[in-house]
Specification:
- By secondary structure, the chain is of the alpha/beta class.
- It has four domains: 2-17 and 169-313, 3-Layer(aba) Sandwich (Molybdenum Cofactor Biosythetic Enzyme, Chain A), CATH 3.40.980.10; 20-43 and 137-167, Molybdopterin biosynthesis moea protein, domain 2, CATH 3.90.105.10; 48-129, Molybdopterin biosynthesis moeA protein, domain 3; 323-393, Beta-clip (Beta Barrel), CATH 2.40.340.10.
- Helix content is 19%, strand content 33%.
- A six-stranded mixed beta sheet has the order 8-5-7-6-10-9, with no helix packed on it.
- It binds adenosine monophosphate and magnesium ion.
- Adenosine monophosphate binds next to helix 3.
Length: 399
């Protein structure tokens, strides 16, 4: 049985980088940037006024009465320059006319019959946004791997980009296994249960931007499992996620099916709780994640291993840097394996705290559904409130 850290490292090592594709800005939201983006334009594009006001030369005597040369709307360029004793009314966003080096807001001037009275001397540069002060053409703008939020897309647009190179979406397959999974819309019969892992993992894959092929529910039958995994191996998937059938029971047949297909089993069993039976294999070039059937184990395995592979594809480290969080209540891990427990992060009073959520175990989806982080407690360890643990945010965008 390997450690959690070794398992994460193995997934990272076996995951190839993704290829990239160019998409228009309007299709880039939620995608991951494939390479560093450089600006094509200065931003601002020219010296522009940040106020509706009067463009003036600061280097003259104030109070002053200035002759009005005209009015300049945003989107227009002044026909001539502004000299001492002169001014031009300009609107927010308009280019500052040559000769002027300050803008006096309309509220601070009195306009009367072709001239304007200004009392206080403006500071040179007042209310002017300088060309290129936010970024210059050619400057790096967004780093490889960043999650494209609306504001990052806006920054790319301001930089003159109309499209961006993004990481190609992963092609994923999902196979749910288990004799007990109710497959009909009529609901579970005697001894059967609803399928929670199918919806869990389809939602998780969709949230990560994968194109998912739903391979349905497979019975715990070696021949059927082997043939369905064999067929999945021919679909050209980047990753195949299965759930169930990886524990030590008589009908846990995923690893046997994989072996008979000649898959390379990289690891099977990780010293962690939940998620001990997790299996990771290479089925041809397809990364296969055999997640346990217990729903919390499947969720944790997805967040830490499948998501880890998706991050590595995009050039990121498999796990985001953990947050150091102070425990808001004591916890105890009696077992030997590393525990990854559900918690709620609290950001108050200048420190990050994590509130452990009581859980009945790896079937307790309700406790897990309240969590926004997993925090790590080493094996055979008791921790007091106030002690610091490493927490990994889940259920929100990790950007
Ligand atoms: P397994 O990993 O196949 O031994 O399953 C472990 C536990 O998870 C059992 O209690 C199963 O009934 C349950 N389980 C397996 N698959 C699912 C599923 N798709 N949805 C909900 N529970 C499941
Ligand atoms: Mg099963």
């Amino acid at each position: 049985m390997i450690t959690f850290a070794e398992a994460v490292a193995q997934v990272a090592k076996r995951t190839p980088p993704a290829s990239a594709e160019e998409v228009p800005l309007d299709a880039a939201a939620g995608r991951l940037l494939a390479g560093t983006v450089e600006s094509r334009l200065d931003h601002p594009r020219f010296d522009a006024t940040s106020k509706d006001g009067w463009a003036v030369c600061s280097d003259q005597t104030f109070p002053a009465r200035l002759r009005v040369l005209g009015t300049l709307a945003a989107g227009r360029v002044a026909p001539g320059s502004v000299g001492v004793g002169e001014t031009m009314k300009i609107m927010t966003g308009a280019p500052v006319p040559s000769g002027a080096d300050a803008v006096v807001p309309v509220e601070e001037a009195v306009e009367e019959a072709g001239s304007v009275a200004i009392d206080a001397p403006p500071r040179p540069g007042a209310n002017i946004r300088r060309r290129g002060e936010v970024f210059a053409g050619g400057a790096p703008l967004l780093e490889a791997g960043v999650f494209l939020t609306p504001v990052r897309i806006a920054a790319a647009a301001a930089a003159g980009r109309r499209s961006l190179r993004v990481v190609r979406r992963a092609r994923a397959g999902l196979l749910v296994t288990g004799e007990e999974i109710a497959s009909s819309a009529a609901g579970p019969g005697p001894g059967q249960i609803p399928d929670s892992n199918g919806p869990l993992l389809r939602a998780a894959l969709a949230r990560e931007g994968c194109e998912t092929t739903d391979l349905g529910v497979c019975r715990d039958d070696l021949a059927e499992l082997t043939s369905r995994l064999g067929a999945a191996a021919k679909l050209g998937l980047d990753l195949l996620v299965t759930t169930g059938g990886v524990s030590a029971g008589d009908f846990d047949l995923v690893s046997a099916a994989l072996r008979s297909l000649g898959a390379e089993i990289v690891f099977h069993k990780v010293s962690m709780r939940p998620g001990k039976p997790t299996l990771f294999a290479l089925l041809g070039p397809t990364l296969l994640f055999g997640l346990p059937g217990n729903p919390v184990s499947a969720a944790v395995g997805f967040d830490l291993f499948v998501r880890g592979a998706l991050r590595v594809r995009a050039g990121l480290p498999p796990l985001p840097a953990p947050i150091d969080a102070a425990l808001l209540a004591p916890v105890r891990n009696r077992g030997r394996r590393l525990a990854l427990l559900p918690g709620c992060l609290h950001f108050a009073g200048g420190t990050v705290g994590v509130e452990p959520i009581p859980t009945l175990g790896s079937h307790d989806l309700l406790a897990q559904s309240r969590a926004d982080a997993l925090f790590a407690v080493p094996g055979e360890t008791s921790l007091r409130a106030g002690e610091v643990v490493e927490a990994y945010p889940i259920s929100r965008d990790w950007a």
